[in-house]
Amino acid sequence: MSESSVGVSSLQPNTQPKPIKILLIEDDVVEARLIREILKNFNPNQFCLTHEKRLQWGVNRLRQEQFELILLDLTLPDSQGLASVELLVKNFPHLPIVVLTNTNDNQLAVEAVRQGAQDYLVKRTINIDVLVRSIQYAIERQKAADILRETNENLMKQIREKTTELMKAKEINHFKSELVSMFSHDFRSPITTVLSCTELLQNRSDCLSEEKKVYLFQMLRSASKNMVQLLDEVLLVGKTDSDTFQCNLTPLDLELFCLELVEELQFNADKKQIQIVFNAQGKIPQTDWDKSLLRHILGNLLANAIKYSSEGDRVQFDLIPQEQVMIFRIQDWGIGIPLKDHQYLFEPFHRASNVGRIPGTGLGLAIVKSCVEAHQGSIKLDSQVNIGTTVTVTLPLLFVVDNPAVKHS
Ligand SMILES: Nc1ncnc2c1ncn2[C@@H]1O[C@H](COP(=O)(O)OP(=O)(O)OP(=O)(O)O)[C@@H](O)[C@H]1O
Ligand SMILES: [Mg+2]
To answer: Which has the higher per-residue pLDDT, 54 or 239?
Structure first.
């Protein structure tokens, strides 16, 4: 209570027109009158004192009116000691409290300050200097504490925001390193094929039959194609991350495009004796499409249907024209996808728990989703383990020329 003992010679009566509103909660009427007199003597216009004799009445008053300070007696009929401080601090955290104690309550007073009261005054020692200075200091200290708390809260907010940013950066970094390790791993296999084929063709050319040479060249072509496709995917993943990813429309014979794609993929499917059955239901309208996006969408979905089917299965690819949209439905009767994986399938690198040794990177569907979104369409996946998977992609017919989201070439 060091401040309370300092004289008030430097204190000038406040010239502000608005008096400081104080609520005195004190059951002793004599004490209350004494405090009122002291404040009045200092300056009748500087303080406006309201008096309540019970804590509950004081609380009610505080709920109705604005005050700048509470003078609180610690021995009230309806509340004793620190309980009163605790209740007031909890309910009115921004109001400074000065507690009034008896001479033998020193320990209690210190504890009250620890609990949030700004100061304490020993009743019998109260005089004009002590009271006025204590009130003014308590108000100033509370203001400083509020500013400090606000600054602290702002700092905490900034820390939280920075932490989120850092986490995001960390996630991106993690994503990048995963991407790098995955692609370096995936490039290794076709590069090894290229190296061994060229080595054989270069060093053992004399002993190789024509048939074997044709086979090796085929292997070379297929490995190179694999690498080009992988490179395409890397670029696409990069693109989908940036804002530059957009739809580039050109006129396209959609049915022919699908037939050619099926033919291309049938070559792969043949290895598992899988038959891709393509069916265009009705007349397919001539509209504009982004060929590259379509290739990524349908290529990945058909490749999945083939990859996750058993030997001898069938893959059904339906093209269903509707008034404003085109529906592409790809169905297989393969291993299916466990329910718990459904929600993560479009996230990069996620592979379902039942893939076993079937190779894959977990990027295909993420790319498909981005391409579908770029084409302003939607994608739906229905799948049951050991029953099969149906993926339905719905794309709008984008031949409306004035669509700002798409570019017509
Ligand atoms: N038709 C399907 N049948 C069963 N599971 C599928 C099918 N399509 C996708 N999945 C599951 O979804 C996962 C994600 O598919 P996605 O195409 O993204 O990756 P991937 O096929 O593993 O690898 P890649 O990037 O080479 O395509 C697959 O790993 C597989 O678990
Ligand atoms: Mg795939």
So the answer is: 54
